[in-house]
TrEMBL record:
Organism: Micromonospora aurantiaca (nom. illeg.)
UniProt-recorded name of the protein: PHP domain-containing protein
Gene3D superfamilies: DNA polymerase beta, N-terminal domain-like, Metal-dependent hydrolases
Domain Polymerase/histidinol phosphatase N-terminal: 104-184
SMART domains: POLIIIAc (SM00481)
SUPFAM superfamilies linked: DNA polymerase beta, N-terminal domain-like, PHP domain-like
């Protein structure tokens, strides 16, 4: 028997490729091979590896078959070793410290809305990263392009999350949540009672991003004053670069990969309101968003706001993008004690419950 788990090695490779922004098809090759092999008895996988018949299975190619064979022989697959060797983590000390202080992620998506992976896989990746919790925040109904969840589907998801939690390692919690649209009038796009039931509510503007300054400011202030809102998501809506390679695909929101300028609002008033209502300002880690820009992070810091450093991950490997947010937060001098996801799950949930 091998001391290594070939499926774990395949998933690890997929994760590292995703994190490195590699093309989606490369990532998928490893994930689908893991899926195919996971459905077979281990003895059959070993027998096929021994007789060179792994590639007869759909979803298993030469490269993935070689990894499995190496892994079954008890060796670290060469492919994996190379990925690990070239992996660059250049975080300076402050950013690394902040990253170490994070215990969870408050903004993530699954294939229930526009993410590419099932809830279970996202949660398991969070476990592997050492997170203590992950908040699942799929989209709300009006965001139809992202398959936003109706109240009925969200209720179903809550039952599903409860079941998934049962199966996850003890000590890790999958928390319930939503990325709710902030509608044109500042109201939140989901049933009030349902919002009250969720552990964490992230609110974001996804439409009318070109609203004039006064209208956008009013809209945001109304949302921030809503007692259900806990975290203000990617507040400017900007896109600084086209979507990174490997991020487009069926699990992603089409090819709207253009850059987009910041929406305009009175940042002093918005951050003052966040501080007053104790709404955390999200530092969105996605490389194409980098939202808010650093000058606004500094402004929010001065206003006394709390922050949440989140990935907005739409795939498991993206859960490791927190380091990008940490780099920007560290550059702006954001202290760990101002960041709500440095808290334990208990403290986080107590905070959100106390607010709504
Ligand atoms: Zn969003
Ligand atoms: Zn999101």
């Amino acid at each position: 028997m091998s001391a290594r788990d070939p499926l774990a090695d395949l998933r690890r490779i997929a994760f590292l490729l995703e994190r490195a922004n590699e093309a989606t098809y490369r990532v998928r090759a490893f994930r689908s091979a893991a899926k195919t092999l996971g459905a077979l008895p281990a003895a059959e996988v070993a027998e096929r590896a021994r007789t060179g018949k792994l590639t007869e299975l759909s979803g298993v190619g030469d490269v993935t078959a070689r990894c499995v064979a190496e892994s079954l022989a008890g060796e670290e697959p060469v492919y994996l070793r190379r990925l690990l060797a070239t992996e660059g983590t250049d975080l300076d000390e402050a950013a690394a410290k902040l990253r170490d202080a994070l215990r969870g992620d408050c903004h993530t998506h699954s294939d229930w809305s526009d993410g590419g992976s099932p809830i279970e896989e996202m949660a398991l990746a969070a476990v592997e990263l050492g997170h203590e919790y992950m908040v699942l925040t799929d989209h709300s109904p009006r965001l139809t392009v992202a398959r936003g969840l109706t109240a009925e589907r969200l209720r179903k998801q809550l039952d599903h999350v409860a079941a998934v939690n049962e199966a996850l390692p003890k000590g890790f919690r999958l928390l319930t949540g939503i990325e709710v649209d902030i509608l044109a009038d500042g109201s939140l796009d989901q049933d009030e009672k349902l919002l009250a039931r969720l552990d964490v509510v992230v609110g974001s503007v996804h439409s009318g991003l070109n609203d004039d300054r006064a209208k956008m400011t009013r809209r945001m202030l109304t949302a921030i004053a809503n007692p259900h809102l806990d975290i203000l998501g990617h507040c400017t809506g900007r896109m600084v670069s086209s979507r990174p390679a490997g991020v487009t695909g069926p699990g992603d929101r089409g090819h709207r990969a253009r850059t987009r300028k910041e929406s305009e609002f009175d940042a002093d008033a918005v951050f003052a309101a966040c501080a007053e209502h104790d709404v955390a300002v999200e530092i969105n880690s996605r490389p194409e968003r980098q939202d808010p820009p650093k000058r606004l992070i500094r402004l929010a810091l001065e206003a006394g706001c709390r922050f949440a450093i989140d990935t907005d991950a739409h795939a498991p490997g993206q859960l490791d993008w927190q380091r990008f947010g940490c780099e920007r937060a560290a550059l702006c001098g954001v202290p760990a004690k101002r960041v709500v996801n440095t808290w334990t799950a208990d403290r986080l949930v107590k905070w959100t419950a106390g607010r709504s």
